[in-house]
Write a structure and sequence with these properties.
This protein is α+β, with helices and mostly antiparallel strands and 164 residues long. It has two domains: 97 residues, Metalloproteases ("zincins"), catalytic domain (Zincin-like, 2-Layer Sandwich), CATH 3.30.2010; 47 residues, no CATH class. It has five helices and six strands, in the order αβββαααββαβ. The protein is elongated.
Length: 164
Amino acid sequence: MPELLKFRVETCYQQAEIFFKRPFARPEVSFKLRGQKAGVAHLHENLLRFNLQLYRENSEDFLKQTVAHEVAHLVAHQLFGDRIQPHGEEWQLIMRGVYELPPNRCHNYEVKRRTVTRYIYRCPCPESDFPFSAQRHSLVRQGRRYLCRRCRQTLVYSGEMRVE
């Protein structure tokens, strides 16, 4: 499946080279992006990262719009340097002129939120619930202390957990 995505990246670069009549350095392509973002262009590393889950669920639009969107960032950086806005006129020019696509800043793919466990901490204040992430809960178990901003007492794990 990633082969088609890599092929689309190459096609986008070839279109840019024809349009601008110059070569562009090809990026490293990674599929290790998770969460809400469909793709990310790392300008100084010449790296593209794509979210395989969102690609699988939205493959047609992803190949057409998202891949071109991220390639346009790298092409704009190679052409115009660091001093341009991420979705500024240079990037928009590439989206419209080279790829003939709308310069949409964000995707509208449905993102399934993963469940998160919260660890409930309390202090002497009435009705004080402090839901901690697993990472923060781990830091407490390693000795870190967190204080209530109102009473300045150490927050203590209640033994309760909540799944969100």
